[in-house]
Amino acid sequence: LLQDNVLNIINQIMDECIPHERANRDFCVKFPEEIRHDNLAGQLWFGAECLAAGSIIMNREIESMAMRPLAKDLTRSLEEVRNIIRDQALRDLNLYTEKMKDSLKHFDVLFAEFELSYVSAMVPVKSPKEYYVQQEVIVLFCETVERALRLGYLTQDMIDDYEPALMFTIPRLAIVCGLVVYSEGPLNLDHKPEDMSELFRPFHTLLRKIRQVI
Hints:
By secondary structure, this protein is mainly α. It has helices at 2-17, 40-52, 61-89, 98-122, 128-151, 156-160, 166-181, 204-213. The chain folds into two domains: 1-122, no CATH class; 128-213, no CATH class. It contains eight helices and no strands. The model has no long low-confidence stretch (mean pLDDT 88).
């Protein structure tokens, strides 16, 4: 609770002191709902201190080792910010020195970087590229259904009545369409497996065989 209160005060000071120079946090919209809560900042501070001290988080040794330098920088920056704010509070509450502004900006950037790294290590967070690929798959399924209706493979009644067979039919049609009709889309096998949707990535070799048969 104390850590949350301290970070809330620092955030209020940054909103007042460097309102137009805050670090970009658009990535937060990708966090699961259960992650986005009022105590997250305090948990991040605690996590940074643990990592800086040499601890391993949640049995994730590789991720912990990768984040440790950033965690150390963040804890040092936070201590510097606290000292500067404490010193300034004893002098003039209405004055924000350049040193104070620079320290706040540096801390804000480090905290945002650590927040993204830490949460990404704890829960799956899709990158913008992964979101784009996922949207391509959605478009493929939509265009497959429209094409199947146009060619009479499916009927609107089957869709309206939630025909159970569609659970198998539509994905199979989408794979065929993705390989043959919309071959430049998300099932483009000329791309590397890692560039494909995680839905199809494990089946890259099998998809090649299916395309050869078709």
